[in-house]
């Protein structure tokens, strides 16, 4: 009898000690990272200084004379839904001038500093881990009426149209073109577009300046850049230029602008390699977003009434694309472009289990004839390269 009592007490003690030593369960999962190599300019600051002084016509050939290096970078793990969602929250906070210092949604992270709110133009917020091991630079996107924050609307729109329309935002004869490269409906002078972008697009030099300033503040940190819409494109340009991981949410196609701006992209190792697909940039968007998918084309498009000509659709780097039109029956528009759609809807659920459930519901109610294939449950769609993207 005594032996049994002793055994029961001993088991209870062991259990108590074991429960104490197991870590407290946190409700919000932590950010996950992966280490991957990135090829980048050995002297990016020197390159940018030279780029600012050479004649515009020579910018295109500049990278031919540069030296490149391969460095290991700690990336956010973009297959992890919670990591993406936290970055999306940071990108959303970039629209607001005031951010709470303590972020319950992002354990281990805190707000660190803000930039550009007094000067106008490029603005955003910086978040950091406890000892500045990793910092996230979140850039603010366009301030159209359907987006929160700011008074930079008209300037943002001009720059958006310069970057993302096929030709100077001349949608039809009623539009005042933003540049002189439009000749007739079949011809846009692409060298002229490149020249205009390099001369007039305020955002690229402003973004690289800003990055220089921030990396001076955090000399030993791993930097990640993020943003929504135009902010995401700027993040993508910085990722490509400085060779740091960038995650862009709901950004319009940035490949044409990256090409026209002649970003310092490493030369491909084989002639058929697509260098623009190899930059450390991850785009995250969904198919019902008219701006991210380049469906703002022509006079009758949803966006043209709001003064936007966002016609480009091919992205650099890799893309995580939620096909909300096909699997969830969403209709294409401007409103699905909001970052809150990602934060409180798409990134709040595991994707494949969700579309399977939606598929069976539709099969039962009979309005989706084709059943959704039963796949292993990925939380986030697999990234793909837009190497075969047709058109702009
Ligand atoms: C992190 O970097 C910022 C900006 O340089 C600095 O103000 C802060 O003291 C740093 N924090 C730590 C814990 O080193
Ligand atoms: C970078 O820092 C310099 C010097 O402090 C300042 O003049 C400039 O405006 C800053 N640039 C940006 C984009 O913040």
Automatic annotation (TrEMBL):
Keywords: Autophagy, Endosome, Glycoprotein, Hydrolase, Lipid degradation, Lipid metabolism, Membrane, Signal, Signal-anchor, Transmembrane, Transmembrane helix. Pfam families: Lipase_3 (PF01764). Its main location: membrane. Residues 210-240 form the Fungal lipase-type domain. It is an enzyme of class 3 (hydrolase). Its EC number is 3.1.1.3. It is a single-pass type II membrane protein. It comes from the Eukaryota. GO terms for biological process: multivesicular body membrane disassembly; neutral lipid catabolic process; phosphatidylserine catabolic process; piecemeal microautophagy of the nucleus. The keyword Signal applies. Residues 1-16 form the signal peptide. It catalyses: a diacylglycerol + H2O = a monoacylglycerol + a fatty acid + H(+); a triacylglycerol + H2O = a diacylglycerol + a fatty acid + H(+); a monoacylglycerol + H2O = glycerol + a fatty acid + H(+). GO terms for cellular component: multivesicular body membrane; vacuolar lumen. GO terms for molecular function: phospholipase activity; triacylglycerol lipase activity. Binds to both phosphatidylinositol (PI) and phosphatidylinositol 3,5-bisphosphate (PIP2). Belongs to the AB hydrolase superfamily. Lipase family. Lipase which is essential for lysis of subvacuolar cytoplasm to vacuole targeted bodies and intravacuolar autophagic bodies. Involved in the lysis of intravacuolar multivesicular body (MVB) vesicles. The intravacuolar membrane disintegration by ATG15 is critical to life span extension. This is triacylglycerol lipase.
